[in-house]
Amino acid sequence: MKILAGPNSEKIAQKIAEQLNLNQLGLSYKLFSDGESYLQIEGNPDKEDIIIVQTTFPNQEKSLLELLLLSKTLKELGADKIIAIIPYLCYARADRKRVDGEVVSHSITMDLLSTAGIDSLVTVNVHNSEVFHNTAKDLEKYNLSILPAIIDYFKDKITEDWVIVGPDKGSKEDIALFAKELSLPSFVLEKYRDPIDHDVRFKDTEYECQSKSIILLDDVITSGGTALKAIKLLLEKNPSNIQFVVVHALAENKVFNEMREMGVKDIISVNTIPRDDIEQIDISLLISKFIEEKFL
Amino acid sequence: MKILAGPNSEKIAQKIAEQLNLNQLGLSYKLFSDGESYLQIEGNPDKEDIIIVQTTFPNQEKSLLELLLLSKTLKELGADKIIAIIPYLCYARADRKRVDGEVVSHSITMDLLSTAGIDSLVTVNVHNSEVFHNTAKDLEKYNLSILPAIIDYFKDKITEDWVIVGPDKGSKEDIALFAKELSLPSFVLEKYRDPIDHDVRFKDTEYECQSKSIILLDDVITSGGTALKAIKLLLEKNPSNIQFVVVHALAENKVFNEMREMGVKDIISVNTIPRDDIEQIDISLLISKFIEEKFL
């Protein structure tokens, strides 16, 4: 088994290769002057199982196409099984048809990955796990939860006045588990869509946060609008501080600056999307352990 | 038969629909705050042959993915035959394996188009016509030459002192035909790669251009480096002026500004890539005529 780092995931691929003690294939990569990617795989993938690591943010479509091109080429070069590690899986938001004629991008991109020769796909905190498992029947699919890595990250840092908060009902199970593992209290906020202006708002909460240290844990942040509203509501409860923890940090830098200006103490994301402007929790060990158990 | 305009080709699709007197399907299109495309097809494609028009520059990977998503969704919605008009076909440059392990993006993207449900593909001045026709066996492929539209554009404008120039041997046939149709003299330049610095240069040419009006016709321009060198060489021949004509204008605006500063009189491209900074030759009629002959 060998590892190939996609252009978007060199660092995490390097870590996984070291943790699993696997050799890496090389990749010669450049952009042509019109922006197209040039890719050349170095080393021999013939009769080998190959792990490709390529997250699909930023530049979702480019990252995705590079992954398809690499996978198909590896198969042409004689690779045996291809395991794609996609720490953040893009185009998963449109997961079902809500109105007639809507493009359900999630299932189509999964089909494309399968037709490009990928045999197994490992991702982290996918947008909709149930739909994910029902797509692309020929593809072996695994959705890892980041929660163990987040719990690990926090377990030596907590003090007694901490409280774990989730931004909506959808986060209820994760929040309960997170709080239980750290023996801390928790609650989730209630989100609703205003019937008149269709804006997302939060109901006030009865939970007491006075002088508490809040960890607000969210799955994903894009425009940041909803997260900023949740933070605003929580700040009105006079906590001693707020730490914002998000799995997939898709938002622009300025969103996090705004959080800092509001008084958020720490902003932490997971390196499913590599960033150097905020603290990151490393998922490589979680992925390596899974690969070891499942494929080695 | 109905037409669907992809997000990158609304104007040209509109023209083709009018010329062929076909109804258009609607497309609801937006970008999510993380940059992903949302697509919803309006109208009924069931049991219809559908023409999708989507050029693949700028944003090659995004345009390509949108095309794949639309095509697959149209098939799911019951569309019969899908004819994709891709005025500029991206990722066609890597057309064969030059070194071991090289990703041959052209054949892979063609396979992706085929697996996404496209039955016929119509493009214009593809990078390598021979390879193009040998890709994706299940896909009906048509490569139109833009030359008739360029000849049409110039035929009422010429005066006797014009000369047609091609930038390299590859353009020889097109240049000869172009010149013959307009009853004008022509020649092609000789390009070579410097054996030491690997830079592209032009050999001096014996052809006389003194006080001539030159039309320099190129297939594609990206960084512009080669075209600017050809123009520099031709300017040394003291022509009365130079018009630069290019089919696929991928270059940045600043390249054309540099040409203007050098003294190039007119810069003209084809709307295979829509631009508003340079004069454009419209290919919609050429495409419409082809569709009419072949599919109606």
Question: How would you sum up this structure, described in words?
Answer:
The structure is a homodimer of 296-residue chains. The first copy, chain A, contains nine helices and 15 strands. The first copy, chain A, is an alpha/beta fold and 296 residues long. The first copy, chain A, has two domains: 2-145 and 283-295, Rossmann fold, CATH 3.40.50; 147-271, Rossmann fold (3-Layer(aba) Sandwich), CATH 3.40.50. In chain A, strands 3-2-1-4-5-6-7 form a seven-stranded mixed β-sheet, with helices on both faces. Chain A has a six-stranded parallel β-sheet with strand order 9-8-12-13-14-15, sandwiched between helices. A two-stranded antiparallel ribbon of chain A has the order 10-11. In chain A, helix 1 crosses helix 9. Chain A is globular. The interface between A and B is large, with 45 and 45 residues.
Structural class given helices, strands, pairing of chain A?
alpha/beta
CATH architecture of the largest domain in chain A: 3-Layer(aba) Sandwich
Helix count from the secondary structure assignment of chain A:
9
Number of domains of chain A: 2
> Percent of residues of chain A in helical segments?
25-40%
Rounded to an integer in angstroms, the radius of gyration calculated over CA atoms of chain A is 20 Å
**First-residue to last-residue Cα separation of chain A:** 8 Å
Mean pLDDT value of chain A: 96
Helix/strand order of chain A: EHEEEHEHEHEHEHEEEEHEHEEH
Spans of chain A of 5+ residues with little confidence (pLDDT < 50)? Answer: none
Fill in the CATH topology of the largest domain in chain A.
Answer: Rossmann fold
Strand content of chain A: 25-35%
